[in-house]
Structure formats: structure tokens, C-alpha cells
Design a protein that fits this description.
The complex is a heterodimer of chains A (928) and B (85). Chain A has 928 residues and is an alpha+beta fold. Chain A folds into seven domains: 18-75, DNA Excision Repair, Uvrb, Chain A, CATH 4.10.860; 87-209, no CATH class; 220-317, no CATH class; 323-482, Barwin-like endoglucanases; 507-646, RNA polymerase Rpb1, domain 3 (Enzyme I, Chain A, domain 2); 657-811, Topoisomerase I, Chain A, domain 4 (Orthogonal Bundle); 859-927, no CATH class. Chain A has 29 helices and 29 strands. Chain A has a six-stranded mixed beta sheet. In chain A, a hairpin with a 5-residue loop joins strand 28 (842-843) and strand 29 (849-851). In chain A, helix 3 (112-129) packs antiparallel against helix 4. The longest helix of chain A is centred in the C-terminal third of the chain and has 36 residues, at 796-831. Chain B is of the alpha+beta class and 85 residues long. Chain B contains two helices and four strands; from the N terminus they run βαβαββ. Chain B has a four-stranded mixed beta sheet, with helices on one face. The longest helix of chain B has 11 residues, at 21-31. The two termini of chain B are 26 Å apart. Chain B has helices at residues 21-31, 46-55; strands at residues 15-18, 40-42, 63-70, 74-83. Chain B has a single domain (13-83), classed as Alpha-Beta Complex (Eukaryotic RPB6 RNA polymerase subunit), CATH 3.90.940. Classes of the chains: A alpha+beta (928), B alpha+beta (85).
């Protein structure tokens, strides 16, 4: 069973065509009758179900090879066609050949020298590129060249124009060419001329493109099924072959009986139709052949093509064993590396264990537990045992003991999943590599998969009914590889943007905010509750000793930081004041961590959040994935602890504002509407000043949008004055846990203008949006401005406008997902087998170069700092300590320059006045 | 715009250099590559036609060195094989 490395290597693939002789030679039997079974239900000899074609019924033996079902691969038969017909798959080639060869002598319409020139060109091309695509262009070119000639250079015959009447009829200046004539012409083309056209005559004579014999696929390819009623139902391909046989038979009889030419031709065309649809039932220009029920038949091409076709569904994609799927739910007590697996699933999924002298006792113990061990705690049992002779024995409660006795070194025991096993965990759509990661198993009661909430963002999972898949790894190599490369902790930093994708969300952010904001402090009991789940941290001295001992949240948070961590950054709650007050910030938004102690600032989304968390970023970069994982695990628990101590809720009353404020908002709205009216009357009176580059109407729209936009903001501001940090909804918005201040102002203040395609609503009825308004009304109310808030409620027309705006969003997402899905498929197909080689080059499977250096800089984006190779600020800070910060600040706006090679002609003259240029120099200095 | 325009002078077009015969082998050896493994560019490429006018006839099988500014690494060098077309 030990297979290492490549045992067989494909050196070449040759494409060729079947000649009629070959079709007859490989045929097990000739098929002549369209009937399949006789009255007794036995297959008729020389019918489509002839027993020479293979066996599908168990117990029978194949008449050709004598093997049983599953052993006999099936054998082809053949139908001799009464008259030749064109193969739809080759019409393009036939057309090309007819056009580029002489109608009388059959030679290629090029002189010997011209032909030789094309051959030479192709040889040279192949030598340089080794790319078949390129040489196919040359063949196409030579064919085109030949087709453009009007007289034959060999026999001087005048050439007539050949056209193709889709799908299979060829015409020469309007006169119809029968397949027979086409075949005769192709037969005349000499072998040597075919080489010029890129055809190897030894395996691919062009006249074989016109069929005289049709291969009949083995019955194993088109099995008939027996319905419950006992009736037989045939495969679509069989049905189609029956049609071909019937018409073939009639055509032969009529032709032999000397029927009128017209009748024979009609039948011939019918045969052509049936053979065409037998290959491809979606050929354009002819109606698809249908089943009796009206369903189009699924013939050969349909079996291969598209998403449900053989390639995409059976060859590129496969179904697997040792996998499980169930609903997911959250569990903050699990590490990010873990996944909770329901015990029922753990008993189905197994891991093969090879028995050796050393684990013999363990293996026996596992086996003796049987397939369903009982007891208060979960114990892994065994489902199957594979003996040294390869026999697989199913373990039952009854035979468990006896099988366990027999287990010896060399056996393989298929053990249930147990804690610590490595499994792959996945959620569709698998859009990036973090969609499938390796987790460690924790077997748990109940029926859902559970994992830490910090892992939701990479999977894009939530718990509103999402399901996920789990795959148990079957080999030691796979487990090792998964553990090293695919473990969750190795994917904290995303290659998409060089920052963390795994991090706190929602309540965790709120929790850490509540823990660390300003002077929040906790009594001894509370402190103990918060730290309960965080492993053995030594409790620092309380910040306040009297009257009671109190610890600050910042102290508690510092416990989970590495002791040598230095960081400085601004929180999400930062108001972006013009002059930053740094440590003295009244919002407590300036985070300073020195020696692993949080000195000032609030820990929120900017510190812990997925996609943004600066601490996560720094930890996983400088301290490694283990430390990073440990931090995330502890941060989860400490944040949950903090939020449970304080309690946190939000309700509709969080958007309550005083009546006074409501009146103010009303006033602001009325003001805005009046202003809009003023603009409109100015426009009507022709007093509106036109903006450059805009029509008068556009100017008006811009002005109105401006006024209404401002009105919404004013309403938001008025409402915002009454929404302070004591408000839960505001806390969530400010610390980045969920929602935004815009959402809140739309709930408490006013919703504002609704738009479709970035413009005010204008369509619906004749010159108006709804019949509630006058025609041509440009006022704010008539064009989709909503002055109410979600809380105060919308008027019917406002509600309608809101639905219009909302619909656009829905349509957009629907269109976007389908289009981006297709784009991604194309991209992946193009890029899937490129790889970065040892020398840093990116190559394809033919080992030709795609990039001379991966990404031009050889940087793994997952290890980059937001895309840059080196985080200069961070280096300065490390080397220079706090003074480094100053330097970093100065360079904050610095533009990263292009490197400059000597002076080249691409260089644009430098503009000495430009401010950027001075910084450009500063940046450029360290590059050289 | 009937005036003749040199594409190589456009700011969005990277530098193109025709690699001298002597250097070809050196470069290929340094990269440990055969000619057929290089990326290709066509003789009909506007840059090749411009090069052809500047440094004499460019033929199939010659190698062009392209130096471009790069967002990620500042500057990057790559080579292309001139092919027919």
C-alpha cells in the first residue's frame, strides 16, 4: 500500500479521430435493429442492448469478455450508416478544409514555397515557445491565406465560394453540397498538404469528419433503469440511438427500393438531424430533440458541458467520506483553534490508527469499547478494524471483545474522533484560503458545531442557521501539514491586506470598551469574576485601597498583555480633533501601552477588532501565532467577563430624544424644505446660477441635494446631542461593535433623501413619482426626501420611497454576487496551477516564467504590514523608544516613492514647488 | 494627431532595452532559464516597433529587458522573448 512519489508520468497527449475502419474494428457487434428487448424481457441480439456491449444486470456475464458487472468495462458497438452524414463537432474544420483546398484537384490553394514557409514558421515557433496555442494560430493563418485564393495554383481551376448554412449544410455558390460530395472532396486532399494546416494525416484524415459508421457506446454508459412498476426506462442516449437506427433503416430501404430522389434526400436530412442531436442537442439552428414528455433529451455534449456536466461536477469536484455537516453555534469558552464537535458526529467520523507493538494495549482498549461506548463522559470507540490481510471488520457491541482480542501489530483501527484531533472546518462559499482552516476537536454534548466568535469573520459566519462542514483527516502527513499550515492561529494575518482577519466582534468589543474606558473600576468580587476564566494571572495591587479595594479595568486588561509590549495608537472612539491632546484626551482615545501596561486609552475595535485590531497585528507579527492565539483566547474571556458584570442591553428607548429636540429637528426640516422651494422658484424664474459643466436642471438637483443632505446631518447632530456615552446604542456605535452614528441618527433624527442610481427619485408615473403629487413637482417631499425617523414612523409615500431605495440595494447585491462569482471562477481557473518556486519566480506547470520575482518584491502579503514589506514606524519605535514616535509622526504623511534607476526617459521633470516632492526625497533616501 | 509619436516616451510605458547578443547568455545563465521559458512579446508590439526604429532591426528570438516602476518593490526588471506576430 505504500505509494510514494509519482508512479506514472504523462509524457504526451495526442488527439486523433476515429476512422470508420477503426470504429468497426473496435466494435463488439453491429447494431441493426431499433428494438431493445423481446417480449420476454431479454435483450435482442444486434439491438441496442445486445449482451455483447457489456453487462448491467448483476449475475450475468458479458458475452464479449466473460466478466461480471463491475469487472467488464463495456464494449462499443457500431451502426453502419446508409448514407454519410456530417459530424457536428467538426463543421468548422470541414468548412476550413473545403475553403482552403481546390474543388477539382483537392490540393491546398498555396504554392509549394508558400506552404513550406508556413511549416518553417511553425517549427521556429515551436522551438521558441513550445506552446501549442501559438502554432495553432499559424495553421489558422495558412488556412485563411489559402482560402483567399480564387484559382488553384496547381490545376488553375477557378474556386467557388463555400458557405456554411448552420448547422451542417454546406453550399457552393448557393448549390447544396451533399455530405457524400463533401466527403469525396476531403478524400482528395493529399497528406502532405494537411501538415501545413496543422493536421497529422496518419491519425486524422479529414474525410473521417464525415461519418459513415457511428460508434454505439457500451450499455454501461447508458444503463436502463427499472421503475417500481416493473417498466423499463431507457437512457436518453439510447432513445436517440433508436431514432438514428429507425431513420437509417428507412433510408436504406427507400434507397435500395429506388424511391424518388426527393424522398431519399428528405430521409437523409432527417438522419443528419438525428445524428447531430445525438452528439449535441443544443446545436443552434435546429430544434432540440424532445422526450415524449416534452423534456429536451440529454445527449453526449450535454453530459459533459456546464456546471452539472462531467467535468465540473464529477472530475473537478468530488464527494468525500469522513465528513460531517451541521448547524453552527458560538462558544466563547473554546480557543480559536478549537471546534466543538457533537458526540453523535464524533462517533461517525473516524481516524485510522496503525497498530504497533507500542500502542497495542491502547488499540485493544479502544476496540473493546465497541462502536458506542457508554458512560458519563465521552470515550472514543472503534467502528471498523482492518486486518493485516486487508479485510475490513465492522465492530458491533457483540463482537467488540472478540475482535479486540485478535488485534495485533499491523492492524489498522478506525477510532472515533477524540479531543485534540486535527480536522478541517469549512464554510461555503469558500472564497479565500481562510474559508477552510484546521481546528482541534473538542467533543461536546448536543448537536451543533461550536467555535470561538473571533473566527466568524474569516468564515463570514453568523449563527442565524448557518451550517458548516468538517473533514476528519486520514493520514499522519495530512494531519501534520494541516497543523503547520492550516491551523486557525496561522491565519490571524490575512494575505488580502496584511492585517488581522481574526479578532473580536460585537459584544467582545463592547466588553473590552466597558472594561477599559476611562476610570472604570471593579471590586474584588467583580475582579475575580472577570479573571475567573483567564489562566493564573497574578493579581496586581489594587489601584484604590480605601475605602474599598478597587482594580481599574486597565489594570485587568494589562494582565493579558505580554510584559514587554510597547504600543501607541488612537482608538475608534477618537474624535479626530485638530490638535491631539495625546494622553490627556478627554475621550480617553489615545492608547499608550508601555511594558505591557495599558497606561491610557480605551481598548475597542481599533485594538482588538477583526480587520482593524492593532494589538492583534503587532502580537501575531512580533510574538508569533502562539502568543497571539493565547491573547485572543484570553481577551475573549475577559471581555465577556466584563460585559456580564456590568450588563448590557439596547432597546428602542435608546433612541428617545426630548420633545424639545424633536421640535428642533422639525424646524430644521421645515427650513430645509423652504430653502428647496426657494431654489425651485429661482430655477423657474430663470434666476438660478448655472454651475460650470452642468445643465440648469443638474445645477438645481445638486443644490437641492446639498440642502437636504445638510438637513439630515443637522437632524443627526441635534439628535446626537442627546445621545451620550451612557447610551448603549451609542457605546456600540462609537467603539465599533455594531452600528454607526449614521444608523442612530436615522433612527432618532431623520432618514433623509432616498436615492436610486445616486439621484433623487424621479420615475414612476408621468412626470411624477406617485399620484399623490402634482406633475413636475420638484419639491423635496415629492422626490423621495424622508423627514421622519425610523422611530417616529414614515408616511405612506415616504415608506414607498424608502422601499424604492432599498430595492436598488437588493438588486445590486444580487447582480454583484453572480458576476463576481463568475469573475472569481475565471481567475482561479487561470491561476490555479501557478506556483512560487524556490528561486522566487512564479511559474506555471510548463515551468515558463509568469513573474521573475513573486509580486515583484518577493514579499508574502500575509507577512507584510498592510502591504508594505517593513513597518518603518514600528522599527523606529523599537529602536528609538518614545523619541522614535516623533519621527514616525513626521513621516506619517510621507509618500512611498518609486525606486529610480539611473535617469531614464520615463522620468518626468521634477516640480520644485510641489510640497510632496520634498517628502518624496525623504522617503526615497532610505530606499537606495 | 498625425505626428509620429514614440510610445517609449509615454510615462505609462516602462523602459524597454534590447539585450545585446553577448548579454543574452549571461542573463539566461543567471536566471537558469531556457529561451522558451521566458514570457513573450510580439514583433508587432508598438514598443518593439519603436525599438526597431531606434536600435536597428529587432528579430524573432531576441530578448528585451524591461525595467518598470513597481508599487511593491520600487523597481523591477523582467525579460521578454520577441516572437513572431
Amino acid at each position: 500500500m505504500m505509494v510514494t512519489g509519482v508512479t506514472k508520468r504523462i509524457s504526451a497527449i495526442k488527439f486523433a479521430m476515429l476512422s470508420p475502419e477503426e470504429i468497426r474494428k473496435m466494435s463488439a457487434t453491429k447494431i441493426i435493429t431499433a428494438d431493445t428487448y423481446d417480449d420476454d424481457g431479454f435483450p435482442i441480439d444486434m439491438g441496442l442492448m445486445d449482451p455483447h456491449l457489456g453487462v448491467i444486470e448483476p449475475g450475468l456475464r458479458c458475452k464479449t469478455c466473460g466478466k461480471k458487472v463491475d469487472e467488464c468495462p463495456g464494449h462499443f458497438g457500431h451502426i453502419d450508416l446508409a448514407m454519410p452524414v456530417i459530424h457536428v463537432g467538426y463543421v468548422k474544420e470541414i468548412k476550413k478544409l473545403l475553403q482552403s483546398t481546390c474543388r477539382s484537384c483537392g490540393r491546398l490553394l498555396l504554392t509549394g514555397d508558400q506552404a513550406q514557409e508556413y511549416v518553417n514558421q511553425r517549427d521556429r515557433m515551436e522551438e521558441l515557445t513550445g506552446d501549442m496555442f501559438e502554432s495553432s494560430y499559424i495553421s489558422a493563418e495558412s488556412a485563411k491565406d489559402a482560402a483567399s485564393r480564387t484559382t488553384c495554383p496547381h490545376c488553375s481551376a477557378i474556386q467557388l465560394k463555400i458557405t456554411l448554412d448552420k448547422p451542417t449544410t454546406f453550399r457552393e455558390e448557393g448549390h447544396k453540397l451533399t455530405p457524400k460530395e463533401v466527403r469525396e472532396r476531403l478524400e482528395r486532399v493529399p497528406d502532405d498538404d494537411l501538415v501545413v494546416l496543422g493536421i497529422a494525416p496518419s491519425v486524422c484524415r479529414p474525410e473521417w469528419m464525415v461519418l459513415t459508421a457511428l460508434p454505439v457506446p457500451p450499455v454501461t454508459v447508458r444503463p436502463s433503469i427499472t421503475l417500481d412498476s416493473g417498466d423499463r426506462s431507457e437512457d436518453d442516449v439510447t432513445h436517440k440511438l433508436v431514432d438514428v437506427l429507425r431513420i437509417n433503416q428507412r433510408l436504406r430501404e427507400n434507397r435500395d427500393a429506388g424511391a424518388p430522389q426527393l424522398i431519399v434526400e428528405d430521409l437523409w436530412e432527417l438522419l443528419q438531424y438525428h445524428v447531430t442531436t445525438y452528439f449535441d442537442n443544443q446545436t443552434s439552428g435546429i430544434p432540440p430533440a424532445r422526450h415524449r414528455s416534452g423534456r429536451p433529451l440529454k445527449t453526449l455534449v450535454q453530459r459533459l458541458k456546464g456546471k452539472e456536466g462531467r467535468f465540473r461536477s464529477n472530475l473537478s469536484g468530488k464527494r468525500v467520506n469522513f465528513s460531517a455537516r451541521t448547524v453552527i453555534s458560538p462558544d466563547p469558552m473554546l480557543s480559536i483553534n478549537e471546534v466543538g464537535v457533537p458526540d453523535a458526529a464524533a462517533k461517525e467520523l473516524t481516524v485510522p490508527i496503525r497498530v504497533t507493538d507500542r500502542n497495542l494495549a491502547v488499540a485493544k482498549e479502544l476496540c473493546s469499547r465497541g462502536p458506542a461506548p457508554e458512560g458519563p463522559t465521552y470515550k472514543p470507540g472503534v467502528n471498523y478494524v482492518i486486518r493485516t490481510d486487508g479485510r475490513r471488520i465492522k465492530i458491533t457491541d457483540k463482537n467488540a471483545e472478540t475482535v479486540a482480542e485478535a488485534v495485533e501489530a499491523g492492524y489498522v483501527v478506525e477510532r472515533h474522533l477524540m479531543d485534540g484531533d486535527i480536522v478541517l472546518f469549512n464554510r461555503q462559499p469558500s472564497l479565500h484560503r481562510m474559508s477552510i482552516m484546521a481546528h482541534e476537536v473538542r467533543v461536546m454534548p448536543h448537536k451543533t458545531f461550536r467555535f470561538n466568535l473571533c473566527v466568524c469573520p474569516p468564515y463570514n459566519a453568523d449563527f442565524d442557521g448557518d451550517e458548516m462542514n468538517l473533514h476528519a483527516l486520514q493520514s499522519e502527513e495530512a494531519r501534520a501539514e494541516a497543523k503547520v499550515l492550516m491551523r486557525v492561529q496561522e491565519h490571524i494575518l490575512s494575505p488580502r491586506f496584511g492585517g488581522p482577519v481574526i479578532g473580536a466582534i460585537h459584544d467582545h468589543i463592547t466588553g473590552s470598551f466597558l472594561l477599559t474606558h476611562k476610570d472604570s473600576s471593579f471590586s474584588r468580587e467583580e475582579t475575580m469574576k472577570i479573571l475567573e476564566k483567564v489562566s493564573a494571572a497574578k493579581l496586581p495591587a489594587p489601584a484604590v485601597k480605601s475605602p474599598t479595594e478597587r482594580w481599574t479595568g486597565k489594570q485587568l486588561f494589562s494582565l493579558i498583555l505580554p510584559t514587554d509590549l510597547h504600543m501607541t495608537f488612537k482608538s475608534s472612539i477618537c474624535q479626530k480633533c485638530d490638535v491631539c491632546k495625546k494622553e490627556k484626551c478627554e475621550n480617553d482615545a489615545f492608547v499608550v501601552i508601555r511594558g505591557g501596561q495599558l497606561l491610557s486609552g480605551t481598548i475597542d475595535e481599533k485594538a482588538l477588532g477583526a480587520f482593524k485590531g492593532r494589538i492583534l497585528d503587532k502580537l501575531s507579527r512580533d510574538y508569533g501565532s502562539d502568543a497571539s492565539r493565547a491573547f485572543i483566547d484570553k481577551a475573549t474571556k475577559i471581555a465577556i467577563g466584563a460585559i456580564t458584570i456590568r450588563g448590557f442591553t439596547t432597546g428602542i428607548d435608546d433612541e428617545d430624544i426630548p420633545n424639545q429636540a424633536k421640535r428642533e429637528i422639525d424646524d430644521a426640516m421645515t427650513q430645509a424644505m423652504i430653502k428647496v422651494e426657494e431654489h425651485i422658484s429661482a430655477y423657474r424664474n430663470g434666476e438660478l446660477e448655472q454651475m460650470p459643466g452642468r445643465s440648469l436642471e443638474e445645477t438645481l438637483e445638486v443644490e437641492i441635494m446639498k440642502v437636504l443632505g445638510k438637513a439630515r446631518d443637522t437632524a443627526g447632530q441635534i439628535a446626537g446631542r442627546h445621545l451620550g456615552l451612557e447610551n448603549s446604542a451609542v457605546i456600540m456605535a462609537k467603539c465599533g461593535a455594531r452600528g454607526s452614528m449614521l444608523n442612530l441618527s436615522q433612527m432618532a433624527g431623520a432618514i433623509g433623501q432616498q436615492a436610486v442610481r445616486g439621484e433623487r427619485l424621479s420615475r414612476g408615473y408621468w412626470n411624477r413619482t406617485l399620484p399623490h403629487f402634482k406633475q413636475g413637482d420638484l419639491g423635496s417631499q415629492a422626490r423621495g426626501f424622508i423627514k421622519n425617523s425610523y422611530k417616529s414612523g414614515l408616511t405612506p409615500s415616504e415608506y414607498f420611497f424608502h422601499s424604492m431605495g432599498g430595492r436598488e440595494g437588493l438588486v445590486d447585491t444580487a447582480v454583484r454576487t453572480s458576476r463576481s462569482g463568475y469573475m472569481q471562477r475565471r481567475l482561479i481557473n487561470a491561476l490555479e496551477d501557478l506556483k512560487v518556486m524556490q528561486d522566487g519566480t512564479v511559474r506555471n506547470t510548463a515551468s515558463t516564467i509568469i513573474q521573475f520575482l513573486y509580486g515583484e518584491d518577493n514579499i508574502d502579503p500575509a507577512r507584510s504590514v498592510q502591504g508594505d514589506a517593513v513597518d518603518v514606524d514600528d522599527v523606529l519605535l523599537t529602536v528609538l523608544g518614545d523619541t522614535g514616535e516623533l519621527i514616525a509622526q513626521i513621516q506619517e504623511k510621507g509618500v512611498v516613492s518609486y525606486g529610480i534607476q539611473d535617469r531614464d526617459m520615463l522620468e518626468t521633470p521634477e516640480d520644485p514647488e510641489s510640497e510632496d516632492e520634498t517628502e518624496f526625497d525623504a522617503g526615497g533616501g532610505e530606499e537606495g | 494627431m498625425t505626428e509620429e509619436f514614440n510610445v517609449l516616451e509615454h510615462e505609462l510605458v516602462p523602459e524597454h532595452h534590447l539585450l545585446p547578443e553577448k548579454e543574452v547568455e549571461k542573463v539566461l545563465k543567471q536566471l537558469d532559464l531556457g529561451k522558451d521559458q521566458l514570457p513573450k512579446m510580439r514583433l508587432s508590439d508598438p514598443c518593439i516597433r519603436a525599438l526597431d526604429a531606434i536600435c536597428g532591426p529587432v528579430e524573432e528570438g531576441m530578448i528585451v529587458k524591461i525595467v518598470r516602476r513597481s508599487d511593491t518593490s520600487g523597481m523591477s526588471v523582467c525579460y521578454r522573448l520577441v516572437v513572431r506576430g
